[in-house]
Design brief:
Blueprint lengths: L1 E2 L2 E2 L2 H8 L4 H27 L6 H30 L6 H11 L9 E9 L2 H12 L4 H11 L4 H5 L2 H5 L2 E2 L8 H9 L9 E4 L2 E11 L7 H33 L2
Helix pairs in contact: 4-10
Length: 253
């Protein structure tokens, strides 16, 4: 595609669409082409008016060029160091960092693990509640539910993440406000009675773990945040090392 002296090459589009699915590529290509056409038209008009000769324009172009070159260089060096394992975090340093900064790792919101199962009848929901009371393993419960009511298999399997991840209550979907309020006040591992959502849809739930705002995270709970913070510190240190290395290269010339 060409507008004036501006040309859109296939290679440019391929770079933009790299890694996208076929469906996403079609949409993204259309959006990119429209944006490119608008910019090309305005660019040609700007060239026609000799904006490229403007002193401020030249300064801004040079400034942007420097930023792009620097960013590409930094990205290249950072990727090389990451591949070498420089920013890896091992459990020993993570544990030491956590113990030194433990008060920082707290929950800001009420968070919980909650297991819910849906059933087509109240009697079936009671069966699930009995499995909860027996501390039946999650996988066993989900397999049993799938065998008994395959029609609700997808709905029940979708509850796995809420039962295995400690999530802020705002990130947990509840069909009604009353269900959320009930979950907030439930005693751990004591299942609710079957709750009717519709004529042929019931739910039973149990709270597996709960932490209140301000509660300190255990090392295991805080590990993702701990490792991310250590990685950031290592990256910052490397940036300072890279600046010193680059300065040394300049001074020796």
């Amino acid at each position: 595609m060409q507008i004036g002296q501006s040309k859109l090459f296939r290679e440019e589009l391929e770079l933009v669409l790299k890694g996208l699915s076929k469906e996403d590529s079609i949409t993204q290509a259309s959006l990119y082409i429209e944006d490119w056409k608008m910019n090309a038209i305005l660019y040609e008009a700007a060239i026609e008016n000799e904006m490229q000769e403007d002193t401020l324009t030249k300064y801004l172009i040079e400034k942007m060029k420097r930023r792009i070159v620097v960013q590409q260089y930094v990205d290249k060096r950072m990727k090389e160091e990451e591949a070498s394992g420089r920013f890896d975090v091992d459990s020993i340093e993570a544990k030491a960092y956590y113990e030194k900064n433990a008060p920082e790792f707290t929950y800001g919101l009420l968070s919980m693990k909650v297991l819910r199962l849906y059933a087509q009848s109240e009697s079936r929901a009671k069966e699930y509640a009995e499995l909860f009371e027996k501390n039946t393993p999650l996988d066993t419960i989900l397999i049993k539910a799938l065998e008994l009511e395959p029609e609700l298999g997808e709905m029940n399997n979708s509850q796995r993440k809420f039962a295995t991840q400690l999530l802020p209550i705002s990130k947990i979907y509840f069909e009604t406000a009353s269900l959320r309020t009930m979950a907030e006040s439930m005693v751990l591992n004591v299942p609710s009675k079957p709750l009717k959502l519709a004529d042929t849809l019931f739910v039973v739930m149990t709270v597996l773990e709960k932490v209140t705002p301000g509660s300190r995270k255990s090392f295991q709970q805080a590990y993702p945040d701990v490792s991310e913070q250590i990685k950031i510190l290592k990256e910052k240190k490397y940036m300072n090392d890279l600046i010193r290395e680059s300065l040394g290269m300049i001074e020796t010339k």
